[in-house]
Specification:
This protein has 234 residues and is an alpha+beta fold. It has 2 domains: 103 residues, Glutaredoxin, CATH 3.40.30; 111 residues, Glutathione S-transferase Yfyf (Class Pi), Chain A, domain 2 (Up-down Bundle), CATH 1.20.1050.10. It is built from 9 helices and 6 strands. The strands form 2 sheets. Strands 4-3-5-6 form a 4-stranded mixed beta sheet, covered by helices on one side. The chain has a two-stranded antiparallel ribbon with strand order 1-2. The termini are close together. The N terminus is likely disordered. The structure holds glutathione. Glutathione binds next to helix 1, helix 3 and helix 5.
Length: 234
């Protein structure tokens, strides 16, 4: 990789909403990780600074014992608080951020609307992304040698997930997935569309999702979180 430049991004100190102390968050991620990308977007939307630490997934750094001590799943992202406590799982991290830094909200106030936003987020983060993450594709390549089967599998699960999400937001007002402001659904959508394109999916039929993506990418919070703009991008 372009050797990682730890801690050079957004080094400002951040005041936590708890008001207990000031500190800098550390986000362990990887430029191409969709799950880390979600957390980068959420941090930016909240205006919360973090030191970015790259775990090179293709070199297996996520399985190093020192990293496993932070995240026993051996996955990125992990967010380490200034007191050393670690949070894992991107959606859990984002909901923690939303609860500790309530503005701007990433979920609507109405319980039914919240559940609808979460449903799209989970359709992508729980039912689509895990089927095509690195370790699943590596296992597939072992069972069916060559790149073709793994890429075809990744493309099909992305297409299936996005087709469902297109229908789930079709009747919602735009330009974002659920109205005039980005939510957790958009935070999950933008990285997943990136993955879908990487695996060769024709995303042009997903007109409503592309509208939401365009609105999101016009915001600096999303633009600055893009994989190509990270210090560990290759
Ligand atoms: N559900 C987890 C997924 C995390 C995940 O799958 N991360 C991928 C990168 S996007 C990873 O670390 N893969 C490494 C591997 O599969 O060994 C989350 O949302 O945080």
């Amino acid at each position: 990789m372009g050797r990682r430049r730890e801690g050079r991004e957004r080094p400002a100190r951040v005041a936590f909403a708890t008001g207990r102390r000031e500190g800098i968050l550390k986000l362990h991620g990887y430029f191409r990780s969709a799950a880390a990308y979600r957390v980068r977007i959420a941090l930016n939307l909240k205006g919360v600074a973090a030191e970015h630490i790259s775990q090179h997934l293709r070199r297996g750094e996520q399985r190093d014992p020192s990293y496993l001590a932070l995240n026993p799943q051996g996955l990125v992202p992990t967010l380490v608080l200034d007191d050393g406590r670690a949070l894992t799982q991107s959606l859990a991290i984002i909901e923690w951020l939303d609860e500790t830094h309530p503005e701007p909200p990433l979920l609507p106030a109405d319980p039914f609307a919240r559940a609808r936003v979460r449903a799209v987020a989970l359709a992508l983060a729980a039912d689509t992304h895990p089927l095509q993450n690195l370790r699943v594709l590596q296992r597939l390549r072992e069972m069916l040698p060559g790149e073709k089967a793994a890429t075809a599998w990744a493309a099909s699960v992305n297409a299936e997930g996005l087709t469902a999400c297109e229908a789930m937001v079709a009747a919602e007002p735009g330009p974002f997935c659920f109205g005039p402001a980005p939510t957790l659904a958009d935070i999950c959508l933008v990285p997943q569309l990136g993955n879908a394109r990487r695996f060769g999916v024709d995303v042009s039929p997903f007109r409503r999702l592309l509208e939401a993506e365009a609105a999101a990418k016009a915001l600096p919070a999303f633009a600055e979180a893009e994989p190509e703009r990270q210090s560990d991008a290759e």
